[in-house]
Amino acid sequence: MHFSSEGLTDRLARRLADVRERIGRAAEQAGRDPASIQILPVTKTLPAAAVTAVREVGLPAVGENRVQEAIAKMAEVDPSMRWELIGHLQSNKVRAAVLHFSRIQSVDTRKGIDQIDRQAAEAGRIIPILLQLNAGRDPAKFGAGLEEAPDLLEHAYSCRNLQVDGLMTIAPLSEDRRVARETFARLRVCRDRLESQFGRHLPVLSMGMSGDLEEAVLEGSTLLRLGTILFGPRD
């Protein structure tokens, strides 16, 4: 992509202000407190300068899709920055992810749960995770089916080195904005059922990206994963 670091922090600050205005309007419509909705800037394919700009505008974490790409940037930025893995996690990258990321959002199999737990135990860490569910029933997306969620959650709760913070989903690509909203509603309903079934709080609903952030806020998202709207289009 044609990415310019010149004036990056100021540009990001302006775009972030616009995004917060949109979040505020959607939150007001939903009767929600905008402060309950966090923004996770997605810095995949962008240089470390983009992560530094995120820090400079006051946001504490970024989302990355690829383990090795993120690790290469980590040495160049403030060590207090938190990194969340939002992309599919391959088995051969689990150890590196556990050692370097603050949270793994893309956990969607029992095998993956076991691998992360084992590596976390070896590293002496408790790893926060989100369970990724394919709430939009999109064959092009990763994520377990909603019907698999209780079994996956029960299994994750049995692991001593995991902390389950909540759920994540990606809406199908569609010109019809109702598709995203229905997807997010299904995830919220699933979360509510799981909380009732297990008697434990799942505070994080990671749902909503640049193209469907209002729909996500209206349906209860607590964490928006935003890239294009903050940094411009990628090639």
Strand content: 15-25%
How much helix is in the residues? 40-55%
Please report the distance between the alpha carbons of the first and last residues: 4 Å
Q: Which structural class is indicated by helix and strand composition?
A: alpha/beta
Outline = globular
**What is the helix tally?**
9
Which sequence of strands runs across the widest sheet? Answer: 2-3-4-5-6-7
Rounded mean pLDDT is: 96
Series of secondary-structure elements, N-terminal to C-terminal: HEHEHEHEHEHEHEHEH
Number of strands: 8
Assembly state: single chain
The value of Rg in angstroms is 17 Å
Low-confidence stretches: none
Outline the biggest β-sheet.
Answer: 6 strands, parallel
Notable characteristics:
8 strands, 43% helix, 235 residues, alpha/beta, two-stranded parallel sheet, globular
In short:
This protein is α/β, with parallel strands linked by helices and 235 residues long. It contains 9 helices and 8 strands.
Q: How would you sum up this structure, described in words?
A:
- The chain has 235 residues and is α/β, with parallel strands linked by helices.
- It has helices at 8-30, 48-56, 67-74, 94-100, 110-123, 149-157, 177-198, 213-218, 228-231, and strands at 38-41, 61-64, 82-85, 103-107, 127-132, 162-168, 204-206, 223-226.
- The strands form 2 sheets. It has a 6-stranded parallel β-sheet with strand order 2-3-4-5-6-7. A two-stranded parallel sheet has the order 1-8.
- α4 (94-100) packs across α5 and α6 (149-157) packs across α7 (177-198).
